[in-house]
Amino acid sequence: MEQRSMTVRVLLFGPAAMAVRLDSVGVELGPQRTYIELARAIGEQWPDLRMYVSRGRLAVNSTFVDASAIIQESDEVALISMVSGG
Amino acid sequence: MSVNVSIVAGPIQGTEDSLPLDGAGAELAFRGIVRPYEAGRPIVGLEYEAYEPMAQRLLAELCAQAIQRFGVLSIRLIHSKAFVPAGEVSLFISIRSERRSAALEAMTWLIEALKRDVPIWKRAVAERCEENLPELRSASGGSGVEECEL
């Protein structure tokens, strides 16, 4: 059965949020729903976030996952890039 | 061995610890204080933003790793979120150990790991930008984060 596309909401923080002036963005994801595909889709659909995706990592449900992880529509995804606490 | 981690809004106050010493021969306390300047220019403070559930969990995991790695007895860590004025404390870490060397090593390792791994961001707020700050648009309709370029 063919999988429909889905929209994943990606939470943004710090410089990434300031780059697009949004605290989250919606990203359309096709049948391939891996972490890698989501990272690629963010860069394509939100070019101003490309640098932050390449320098950062995506967290799924508050946990860093590996590149083969499958993303579900209900997952909480966050772009974690260039942290600066302390 | 114990770990106590919290993220609080605004400056950190009241860091006295009444927990039993549990055989500690050293207690090392670190207070990170917001400087009144950033990149050579005056600021009124720092705005901290945290991805809180993840930050809280990672801080606790790093403290547990530090206990395991350096054999210290306990770690208490408090990190600020939201606005902290210059001159106020935004990070407090207290480490107890049997001997001082373990606490000193654990403190250095923990602060570096925190700055590298924990999803907390800070942004300088300059005096001239305190009013009429533009806001981020929030997809959920809530208020966003203010911006102030230095």
User: What gross morphology of chain B would you assign?
Assistant: elongated
CATH second-level architecture of chain A: Roll
How far apart the termini of chain B lie comes to: 43 Å
Shape call of chain A:
globular
H and E order of chain B: EEEEEHEEHE
Question: How many β strands of chain B by DSSP?
Answer: 8
Number of helices of chain B: 2
* Pattern of helices and strands of chain A: EHEHHEEE
| Helical run tally of chain A | 3
Q: What is the helix content of chain B?
A: 10-25%
Total count of strands of chain A: 5
Question: What does this protein structure show overall?
Answer:
The complex is a heterodimer of chains A (86) and B (150). By secondary structure, chain A is of the alpha+beta class. Chain A has a single domain (6-80), classed as Beta-grasp domain (Ubiquitin-like (UB roll), Roll), CATH 3.10.20.30. Chain A contains 3 helices and 5 strands, in the order βαβααβββ. A 5-stranded mixed sheet of chain A has the order 2-1-5-3-4. Chain B is an alpha+beta fold and 150 residues long. Chain B has a single domain, classed as Molybdopterin biosynthesis MoaE subunit (Aldehyde Oxidoreductase, domain 3). Helix content of chain B is 25%, strand content 35%. Chain B has 2 helices and 8 strands, in the order βββββαββαβ. In chain B, the strands form 2 sheets. In chain B, strands 1, 2, 5, 6, 7 and 8 form a 6-stranded mixed sheet that branches. A two-stranded antiparallel sheet of chain B has the order 3-4. In chain B, helix 1 (52-70) runs antiparallel to helix 2 (100-117). The termini of chain B are far apart. The model of chain B is unreliable at 130-135 and 138-150 (pLDDT under 50). The interface between A and B is medium-sized, with 23 and 33 residues.
